[in-house]
Amino acid sequence: MSRGIFTALLAIGLAQFLKIPIKQLKTKKWNWKTFFESGGMPSSHSAGVASLATYIGLRLGGRTLDFALSVIFGLIVMYDAQGIRRYAGETSMKVNELEAKVEKLAGESSGSFHEQKKRQLKEQLGHQPEEVVAGASLGVIVGSISYMLGKMKGKN
């Protein structure tokens, strides 16, 4: 596997793992399933693309087409993560709220059907800007370390 791919996958995995203790600080509960959830702090999408762009920039130089492509695609991914996907998550929250209100208006005042429903729309899809910045920062660190380790081993 190429070092660039390994670097990006490592950054994604590390960001997903870090979500577990960060969420625990907020909720006071350990939830290992958080590793497989989208959204949250830090953004693993941002960590992955930033680590790859950093690694490519350090290895090949900032004036290469490879670096330019990785930066542009990375910016698109980060914009999507904090923009479009976040708005989709906010829309899901409104739809779920609306469904509960309709149920109550229809005479099911307890709201139990809505809470027992197995398939509510997923509300945590995207990221707040600070989650994207944190993920990108983590990615720059991972990409830099990967480059330095590869250089020390003579594999860059």
Task: Provide structural commentary.
InterPro entries: DUF212. It holds the Pfam family DUF212. It comes from Evansella cellulosilytica (strain ATCC 21833 / DSM 2522 / FERM P-1141 / JCM 9156 / N-4). This is Acid phosphatase/vanadium-dependent haloperoxidase related protein. One of its GO terms (molecular function) is peroxidase activity. By secondary structure, the chain is mainly alpha-helical. It has 2 domains: 1-83 and 131-156, no CATH class; 86-125, no CATH class. Helices cover 72% and strands 0% of the residues.
Summarize the structure.
This protein is mostly helical and 156 residues long. The chain is 72% helix and 0% strand.
Tertiary shape: elongated
Could you estimate the helical fraction of the residues in percent? Answer: over 70%
Beta-strand fraction estimate: under 5%
Major pleated sheet: none
Total number of helical segments? Answer: 6
Task: Provide the low-confidence segments as ranges.
Answer: none
Strands, count: 0
C-alpha Rg, in Å? Answer: 20 Å
What's the structural domain tally? Answer: 2
User: What's the average pLDDT?
Assistant: 84
List the helices and strands and how they pair.
Layout: H1 3-27, H2 44-60, H3 65-82, H4 84-105, H5 112-116, H6 129-153
Helix pairs in contact: 1-2, 1-6, 2-3, 2-6, 3-4
InterPro entries: DUF212
GO molecular function, one term: peroxidase activity
Keywords: Oxidoreductase, Peroxidase
Please give a handful of descriptors for the protein shown:
single chain, 0% strand
